[in-house]
Amino acid sequence: MKIQVLIDNIESFDANSRRKLFGEWGLSVYTEFEGKRYLLDTGASHLFSKNAAVVGVDLSKVDVGVLSHAHYDHSDGMARFFALNKTAPFYLRKGAGENCYHAGKLFGRIPYHYYIGIHKGYLKRFADRIRFAEGDMQIAPNVYLVPHKTPGLERIGEAAHLSVKENGVYRYDSFDHEQSLVFNTSKGLFVMNSCSHGGADNIVKEIETTFPGKKIYAILGGFHLFRYKDDVVRAFAERLHALDVQKIYTGHCTGNRAYEILHEVLGDRAEQMRCGMTIEL
């Protein structure tokens, strides 16, 4: 198994080509596993494809694409991917739509919402390439898509000021558009969930329930901790430590200060993602 981070917040430098790898607020991860190539998310622009070319990843040969959730910073590069790759199906969770918003209050009292979802019109424009996943879904031998199964995630949506609009009405996001990409490797389950809005600790428990008796070796993704206070992050890190996941690869929406706390609690189990990072099992 070989994993390469094509886009993360932290830019980098490719030693082989001596070229810069551009970072942005987003995530895109390329994986080679058991003879197939997978792309998880496309970042917030075309930059994932530029970085892919620098590190020698041929996106035209990707076999399967997956969108972790319906936010712009993971989906706005979809058009670029479809321009480069003419065949790969692209899996979204059935709950995904062009309807995700960030909620807030001006002056602490006037509600407002601004759009943070999939580029308007993409779902119709690329309907022939998009597949909608329902329930637990196997997309290849030893490769699965798993939705959230934890009740009450609207509380996390409220705390994160995230909402969806349905029939003209806003509700707090329950993250029914979010899914985990799971690889059953020789070392155990390798879980990818790009923002883990529903809580990375909850996701680990969900995967344990989905695959009873299987050990979770690693989880990769952003943990959406950049807005949280230190004590909240530390409590989360302690919960993650108790779940005994061996490797944690995190970046993007985790945040620098949150990563420092994670590393304090988890030690070398936690690694900071960056553009061009390569993981091999």
Secondary-structure arrangement, i.e. CATH architecture: 4-Layer Sandwich
User: What's the order of the H and E elements?
Assistant: EEEEEHEHHEEEHEEEHEEEEHEHEHEE
Which ranges are low-confidence, i.e. pLDDT below 50, for 5 or more consecutive residues?
none
Annotation field: number of helices: 8
Question: The CATH topology is what?
Answer: Metallo-beta-lactamase, Chain A
Radius of gyration: 18 Å
What's the CATH H-level homologous superfamily? Ribonuclease Z/Hydroxyacylglutathione hydrolase-like
Fraction of residues in β-strands: 25-35%
Q: What structural class results from the helix and strand content?
A: alpha/beta
From the N-terminal CA to the C-terminal CA, the straight-line distance is 5 Å
Tell me how many strands there are.
20
Shape: globular
Total tally of structural domains: 1
What portion of residues is helical? 10-25%
CATH class type = Alpha Beta
Give the biggest beta sheet: 7 strands, mixed
Strand order of the largest sheet: 10-7-6-5-4-1-20
Mean pLDDT: 96
Describe this structure in words.
The chain has 281 residues and is α/β, with parallel strands linked by helices. The chain has a single domain (2-280), classed as Metallo-beta-lactamase, Chain A (4-Layer Sandwich), CATH 3.60.15.10. Helices cover 23% and strands 33% of the residues. It is built from 8 helices and 20 strands. It has helices spanning 47-55, 72-75, 78-84, 122-125, 154-159, 200-210, 230-242, 256-266; strands spanning 2-7, 12-14, 19-21, 28-33, 36-40, 64-66, 90-93, 100-106, 110-115, 130-133, 137-140, 143-147, 162-166, 169-172, 179-185, 188-192, 216-221, 247-250, 270-272, 278-280.
